[in-house]
Fold this sequence. Notes:
The structure is a homodimer of 492-residue chains.
Chain A: H1 12-22, E1 26-28, E2 35-37, H2 39-58, E3 62-63, E4 69-71, H3 72-75, H4 79-86, E5 91-94, E6 97-99, E7 107-109, E8 114-121, H5 126-136, E9 145-154, E10 168-178, H6 181-201, E11 208-211, E12 223-230, E13 236-246, H7 248-252, E14 256-258, E15 264-266, E16 268-275, H8 277-286, E17 303-308, H9 311-331, E18 336-338, H10 346-356, E19 360-365, H11 366-370, E20 373-378, E21 384-388, H12 392-417, E22 419-421, H13 425-433, E23 438-442, H14 447-457, E24 460-465, E25 473-474, E26 481-482, E27 485-489
Helix pairs in contact in A: 2-6, 9-12
Amino acid sequence: xxxxxxxxxxxxxxxxxxxxxxxxxxxxxxxxxxxxxxxxxxxxxxxxxxxxxxxxxxxxxxxxxxxxxxxxxxxxxxxxxxxxxxxxxxxxxxxxxxxxxxxxxxxxxxxxxxxxxxxxxxxxxxxxxxxxxxxxxxxxxxxxxxxxxxxxxxxxxxxxxxxxxxxxxxxxxxxxxxxxxxxxxxxxxxxxxxxxxxxxxxxxxxxxxxxxxxxxxxxxxxxxxxxxxxxxxxxxxxxxxxxxxxxxxxxxxxxxxxxxxxxxxxxxxxxxxxxxxxxxxxxxxxxxxxxxxxxxxxxxxxxxxxxxxxxxxxxxxxxxxxxxxxxxxxxxxxxxxxxxxxxxxxxxxxxxxxxxxxxxxxxxxxxxxxxxxxxxxxxxxxxxxxxxxxxxxxxxxxxxxxxxxxxxxxxxxxxxxxxxxxxxxxxxxxxxxxxxxxxxxxxxxxxxxxxxxxxxxxxxxxxxxxxxxxxxxxxxxxxxxxxxxxxxxxxx
Amino acid sequence: xxxxxxxxxxxxxxxxxxxxxxxxxxxxxxxxxxxxxxxxxxxxxxxxxxxxxxxxxxxxxxxxxxxxxxxxxxxxxxxxxxxxxxxxxxxxxxxxxxxxxxxxxxxxxxxxxxxxxxxxxxxxxxxxxxxxxxxxxxxxxxxxxxxxxxxxxxxxxxxxxxxxxxxxxxxxxxxxxxxxxxxxxxxxxxxxxxxxxxxxxxxxxxxxxxxxxxxxxxxxxxxxxxxxxxxxxxxxxxxxxxxxxxxxxxxxxxxxxxxxxxxxxxxxxxxxxxxxxxxxxxxxxxxxxxxxxxxxxxxxxxxxxxxxxxxxxxxxxxxxxxxxxxxxxxxxxxxxxxxxxxxxxxxxxxxxxxxxxxxxxxxxxxxxxxxxxxxxxxxxxxxxxxxxxxxxxxxxxxxxxxxxxxxxxxxxxxxxxxxxxxxxxxxxxxxxxxxxxxxxxxxxxxxxxxxxxxxxxxxxxxxxxxxxxxxxxxxxxxxxxxxxxxxxxxxx
Lengths: 492, 492
């Protein structure tokens, strides 16, 4: 398989696909719109999942598991939610195959095994979960319920892209139930902060926190909070959402609780999720034409050591020298691979680990040992340095921290350079068609105007940032009055 | 909700259902045959999954993820496999719902969104995975592939039981590809050993390793290896299987590799899996009429400390005393909960933690502190003992190890007492209808006889144990010659 990757400048979209496939993150599958997450990609997902899972547990959440299927009658109970997802539902209608009498060796759907009620493959689990919570909640003593689920979901998308938009994807979905509106709001907001912390501190991708407009809101939510990230091609990507669901699902599924005064009320709800889409964001936020660039904190492999040798004797000497360094790295919790395989030349190995985005590479040869040094290369800047073997493990540990920080700062700088404040429609279009990025502009607050802007510019309102100052102005399209700026961008 | 559990002696099956539901492991759902795994049950599954995952990784395996759906044409490629699972396949036929024009607010399957090719919800993933491996394998250098997947699968069962037999369940499925027959055989055998080690050392359930007869073989396998466990009601339970698939799937999906001599050959395969069914086995192997009994190594919570106090002052004093003990336990990697909640009396708490099977309970009151002791109760034997506070954390650690060992030995003794060698049909039926358990008997080796025995006795051949000695004899049903004994039982 050729490992040549289309350069970003030439075709960003093709660069992305090449990179995802050639670095071994994922592969297309025989199922329309579904992908195979390959071991390297899944290893990355495990690192992300484990970090998130710990953050969820540290904030008091527990995991559970609910059915893959949602009976149609439950699915349609919350009308807005059902309407929003109806168009992309995979539907199970039969429960048996049988031998095809007209086609030896082939199977056909058994018409006698038709389900009385169709089952929707979950596109999201509010319906099945709130139907369950109904049995779990009687009194305020049963609240809050702070449950998360790691699961696969299916949304039948017509245009798919590896990780970014696939018919089936892996995600986590938190579903919480509360006695008061305020508590639910605080939960929704808290989980957005957890997501932001994860994306910034682990993925090294800065995000804008804000609130979605009505047009972009989750179907069935009262409000949707989001974090928005910027990719290197100037397009935005929604990296996570946290929904305040009000009492919508409690009403749809008749979930009431008696409070301390023995008064019955509907339960308040939130839901929040991030998915394997984050892997797409990670790739597009940092990587280059040589391959992936992975932040050390979530890289499946943080350090690779490549011996440069001729003959077994030199290899043995290098191995002897390297052993205690590997042990020291492991003791510091750093993942390290010693690649002494003899089926590839060092140069080939270097290119391969660059492609895979391993943050730090150490190369060491016989001459280096004489000089008590090794060559340390960092993946992000590709800088190489000759480093003394004395204390080299600690040097590497510090370097990993530096790379993590550098990636974040670089992305932050990029975002600052690609966030533009505009006041007219011409400026707006000029920025979008030019350098891209986030565009801060006034909007009159109506869904119609938002639709019209989207139609004309292909840009959407990514969010109303939490930190947006009150500032009167005029809508870039209609000239009508506006109270504050919102953040537009073309987006994935 | 009443926490009364039907006694085992009265109705074992009802006892099991009561226990699973009332201890908070799982719940029924609105979807026929599917269950909700509640937080406590999922916590248990996480402990089991994490232990297994580590064992898989320690033996060189990596995780990946393949699509939930299998196109019908791929599903039917390996005929035996397809035939075996066709009768229990959930089938997706449509990809969209739409508003029902005759039923306001309701949805209907959109007849215009019919899939060209139906998609089977995976009952197992050999087909989709081998269709993928075809692209991954060209040469012996690409082998072995040692991949595992954690996933949900669906098998449309008519009679379901929580954990033991559900339409959807969680499992792991290993799928490996090898250059030689011997290597594949060794892999299949190795993973059976991994399963046996896990079930015995973590779940404290002894197992018999053996090989399945042709009747009981996995559809599409050349041979199926299994581990069989014995439940407290004398019925057997298949706890895990590891399949040597030969070249069956490689041939069905045309997966060839060139060996070192550049000769093309089909790839050799194994697959192996365990599922949430193990939780059912765990419950039935150890628990009693008061609730669950969980082995310390996989108990989500290992130690609970309950203060016995009157007033805040006493509670503060106890808390002060208990704090360093909690810290010591945590430092030793022991999970501990200090239940100082004031919404329940100690007696109620004791019953609740017994129901949940927490291995060790420590109760401590003001008088105890005066005497520098605490009361330690172990869940398995319900023995209580007054233990000096000096070094009590270490005492608890040792006790946890002792409980783990004791549970295993008790189960081992039970199995020995319930494994009977018989030589005649009358003896065979007498044992099955009497004390139950494993029955070691001669069988003439034919599938017809095996079927007949099953029909007459409801017992199946659980396996031909690896350690069965060659011993000539006569089939208990037909009197025909037999070379060795096999293990029969009525089974879950």
